[in-house]
Design a protein that fits this description.
Blueprint (H helix, E strand, L loop, with lengths): L4 E4 H9 L1 H10 L9 H20 L4 H5 L4 E3 L5 H5 L5 E5 L4 E5 L3 E5 L4 E9 L6 H7 L1 H19 L7 E9 L12 E9 L5 H13 L11 H13 L2
Parallel strand pairs: 1-4, 6-7
Antiparallel strand pairs: 2-5, 3-4, 5-6, 7-8
Helix pairs in contact: 1-2, 1-8, 6-7
The protein binds iron/sulfur cluster.
């Protein structure tokens, strides 16, 4: 029997965007350089605290009223576990011998019991146009896949899950006249019509790749690999 493979939704996302990066990360513990998103983490935390207030009193957050969402923040004993990066919500497949998980930002519950999966994002753009961003950029499509993977996890854990999921976007206003040690945000609540039909197959494909000896080629348009290639070429001339 093969050893169990523990993987997260970001491993599957890496498999989808560049299988080589997925292998480098999971098998060789080599990751592309990245910066810590400390401001995003601060926004996530503040938002979590605010939603937790409404969770405690089981009342809709004012945004739900503004956007006509008939729900309240979901109360559950495992919520902190599901939100934890080290644990998250998980599903173990006996058949394919994997343990898949992800850490969710928030969950709301509709009157009929369906869970709404929510992810919080922070950015700072002059013109916030989600449709345009979604049509042009792969990272926006990855945000949708992220929600779909969480939806799948909740379904596998026996919950009823709504088809719609939300991105709660905080857009930092950078053109205010005075700073006054305050960063103000516009809030955009984006409803996404999701499908989990692809998720299981892609988890299995990722697991199969990680169990194989295949070392996929780098993606041609990846800025990291191109940077390394050019540096290497320069150093040997
Ligand atoms: S092409 Fe980019 S994403 Fe793929 S292995 Fe290289 S650095 Fe990673």
């Amino acid at each position: 029997m093969n050893e169990i493979i523990k993987l997260s939704r970001s491993t599957v996302e890496k498999y989808l965007s560049c299988p080589r990066c997925c292998v480098l990360d999971k098998k060789y513990k080599i990751k592309p350089p990245s910066l810590p998103f400390t401001l995003n983490i601060a926004v996530d935390n503040l938002c979590k605290n605010e939603f937790d207030y409404y969770r405690k009193i089981q009342e809709p957050h004012p945004l739900f009223i503004e956007y006509s969402i008939d729900a309240v923040p979901f109360k559950h004993k495992d919520l902190e576990l599901w939100r934890s990066n080290f644990k998250g919500i998980r599903y173990k497949s006996i058949e394919h011998n994997y343990d898949f998980g992800g850490a969710v930002d928030d969950i709301w519950q509709k009157k009929n019991g369906d869970l709404i999966i929510v992810d919080v994002k922070a950015t700072s753009r002059n013109n916030f146009d989600w449709s345009d961003t979604f049509s042009k950029y792969e990272y926006a499509k990855a945000y949708k896949r992220q929600l779909e993977m969480y939806q799948w996890l909740f379904k596998k854990n026996g919950f009823q899950v709504a088809k719609e999921a939300y991105l709660l976007y905080f857009n930092g206003k950078k053109n205010e006249e005075f700073f006054n040690n305050q960063l103000n945000f516009d809030v955009h609540l984006l409803k996404l019509d999701c499908s989990t039909s692809w998720v299981e197959n892609k988890i299995i494909d990722t697991v199969n790749l990680l169990r194989s000896d295949v070392f996929p080629k780098p993606s041609l348009n990846c800025e990291y690999c191109n940077y390394l290639k050019k540096r290497w070429q320069l150093s040997i001339t």
